[in-house]
Automatic annotation (TrEMBL):
The lineage of its organism: Eukaryota, Metazoa, Chordata, Craniata, Vertebrata. It comes from Aotus nancymaae. InterPro entries: Thioredoxin, Thioredoxin-like_sf, Thioredoxin_CS, Thioredoxin_domain. The active site is at residues 23, 26. This is Thioredoxin domain-containing protein. Residues 2-40 form the Thioredoxin domain. It comes from the Eukaryota. The record marks 17 as: Deprotonates C-terminal active site Cys. PROSITE patterns: THIOREDOXIN_1. GO terms for molecular function: protein-disulfide reductase activity. The record marks 24-25 as: Contributes to redox potential value. CDD domains: TRX_family. Disulfide bonds join 23-26.
């Protein structure tokens, strides 16, 4: 599903954040991501927002891998 989502993005930019609580550089960039989350009105973590052609087409919160995969498959 992940590779399918990347393939479907074509020339569009896809940003994937891999981080860990023990990672020093991750801690340094964290305030920036918090600012972006605030601008996007994210109220809880994890929150997933889905965009197509610059428009938000979906969102959900929670660590539900089945819902994440289903939503990606639905939107690609």
């Amino acid at each position: 599903a992940f590779q399918e989502a990347l393939d479907a993005a074509g020339d569009k930019l896809v940003v994937v954040d891999f981080s860990a609580t023990w990672c020093g550089p991750c801690k340094m960039i964290k305030p920036f991501f918090h600012d972006v989350a605030s601008e996007c009105e994210v109220k809880c973590m994890p929150t997933f927002q889905f965009f197509k052609k610059g428009q938000k087409v979906g969102e959900f919160s929670g660590a539900n891998k089945e819902k994440l995969e289903a939503t990606i498959n639905e939107l690609v």
